[in-house]
Amino acid sequence: MANSKLYKGSLTTIILKLLSEHDKMYGYEITQKVKALTKGELQITEGALYPSLHKLEAEGLLDVEVAKVDNRLRKYYKLTEKGTTETVNKLSELEQYIATLQTLINPKLSY
Question: Any idea where the Transcription regulator PadR N-terminal domain is (predicted)?
């Protein structure tokens, strides 16, 4: 995507959505999943991802599990019950926002 600023406001929702579809994920796995699903259009940097993950954890939306993998510690993130509820809310907000933008961009297609 030419303008990465467009997705930065949606990063939290992207993270929550992915975690709602997977039991648990680690940071690099999240970045790669987004890259694969969007065929490279969205590429989340570690500098954007980890502050968002830490914020979501601090808000009680994520739990963290630490596991030893190949002689190193890996943090796995998963949704809490509160995180699951917030995911539904965030997705609804994003869908409404996209619909509003669509009305502005192409009013002929609006219903």
Answer: 15-86
